[in-house]
Specification:
By secondary structure, the chain is mostly helical. It has a domain of 125 residues. 54% of the residues lie in helices and 0% in strands.
Length: 254
Amino acid sequence: MTNYRFWDHEPAKFVAAYIISGLLAILIPGINHAKSVKRYQNSYYYQYNNQYDDQDQNGSGDLPSWFSGWNGNAYVSGDSQDGSSANSGAIKFVYTWELLMFLGLLAYGGMVLFKFRGPLAQSRMALWSLFVLIFVWANFAFMTMWLVANGSIYTDGREMEEVGGFYNQFSVLLFVTNFWYLMWSICFCIALGVRIFRKAGEEVINETKKPGDSMNYLPYSEPSVTATGVSTLSLPLSSTGAPAPAPAPKSSWW
C-alpha cells in the first residue's frame, strides 16, 4: 500500500499555489509599508521636526512615479484635516474588513478546489461559482483603488509632509494592497478558466475512448471465405434463422 503524498497530486499543488499566493498578496504590501514608515521615521527629515530636505532618504515630499496616473487628493492650506482622511479610522476599518473578506475567499476557494478535484461533471458548478467570485473580487479591488486614490491619498509635496510622507499614509497601504488583490484575482481567473476547459477537454477525450461507444466502430474487414469457396455472409438462412449448410462441392473428376 502506497502512502499518500500531498505534492504528488496536481490538484493539491494548485490549491497550495492558490492559498500561498493569496497570503503573499496580503503580506508583501504590509511589510513594504512598515519598512517605508520605518525609513521615514529614521530619516533626517523626520528627526528635524518636518523641515523640508531634498536629501530625504524616503523621498517623502516626492510623488512616486508608479502613482502618477492617479489623481490623488489636493490638500488645501488652512484645512483642519491634518491627514485625518489618509489615516482615519474609516480607512483602517475598510482595510481590516477587506482583509477578512479576502481570507474568507482564500478559505472557501481552497476548500472548493480540493473537494471538487474529481471529474468536471461533478465539480462544474462549484468551479464556475468560484470563478465568478474571484472575478467580482477583482472588480471590487479595482473600484476601491480608484476611490481611495481620488479621495484619501495626498499627493502634493508640502501637504504630504503634513501627513508624514507619502508612504506614511494608511490609505496608500490600502491602495497597494488592493492592487495586489487585483493582480492575484486576474491571475487566478485565467488559471481557473484554463483548468476548467482543460478538464473538459480531457473528459471528452476519455469518453471517446470508452469501449462500446457509438463513436467507436470496429474496423471494416472483407468477409472470410470458407474452404468451399462460399462466403459465410452470403449463405441462405434456414427456417430457424441459422445459416443453411453449404452445398457439397462438385467433383471435378468427371
